[in-house]
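Narrative summary of target 7.
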Amino acid sequence: MSSDPRVESAVSHWAPRFVSNGVLLADFNEVTDGIARWEDWCSAWCARAASHEALGKEALSEGHKLSAGEHLTRAGVYYHFAKFVFVDDIDQMRAAHTKAIECRQLALPHLRPPGERVEVPYGSGHLAGILRKPAGVSNPPVLIMVPGLDSAKEELEAYELPFLARGIATLMIDGPGQGEAEYDFPIRGDYEVPVKAVVDWLVQRTDVDTQRIGLWGVSLGGYYAPRAVAFEKRIKACIALAGPFDWASNWDALPLLTREAFRVRSHLKTQAEAKQHASTLSMVGIAKQIECPIFIVSGKQDRLVPWQDAQRLADEVSGPSELLVVEDGNHIANNRPYRYRAKSADWLMAQFGMPQV
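Modeled conformation, tokenized:
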């Protein structure tokens, strides 16, 4: 184990997340065992990502397209985890991020079902996303999926697969402060603004059922999603995984890496400014405006977001709510993904009036 507390913090907090979202356990152990200093984190993960990228490109050259898609998707996840909170060296972080996007983009046409890169007009630019539609389903309902503080669309495949398998299309979006948008658009507490832009764009499509739109968010996205549905009434159901109720109230207990990532992705200069900005991410006085059905998940052993935040959200919404607190679950219950991933997808099917499978 590294003596660098930043490495120790990353390993202890995120091991279940890495493994449940596509990192092989042997790779996780080997890469992290070889990292002595936080400054080496990004390069170490990039080196392991490159080996999976090479396998993907070799498979592609040999015509093994499905294998190529699998290898390249894994490479994209590894490159993502190289940069996920590596904000100390922006140039190195951005280079790793570019590789994550590149590998996932190469994989998309070869996945089952395939994916399509989309760009949603937003502000002076766009929000990048990935749309995947379940095979053999005409005009499927669609779930918009938003990442958290340090996740991005390239990490979310493990979360989206249960929905695709049940006939629901998925639209994964990098919003302000997230993924491709983090360089141009800072984190904003009023996430209903980018979600409105996404829904405005989505309702113009004819290949999905825009009368049945859901919204899903993970970690800080577990705040963004309920915040958005409090205002955006075209969304019919919401899933919130381990989101804070009031981000500033949790601030002092957050790991340094998390607070620094929030500062950088908020485009602020100091931690004092970041803490002040955190106060704009709050459901206080807003949760009662949520009228659509909502499914809320938390881990009772969560060290980042207290499970009581989930309980408070469930208590204060006006519409129907279902709360699942995983007793032995950590943050997002990533150590127990089987406790909620399939269940949340089944719940969404019911909200959309789909026959259970």
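The longest strand covers residues 115-122.
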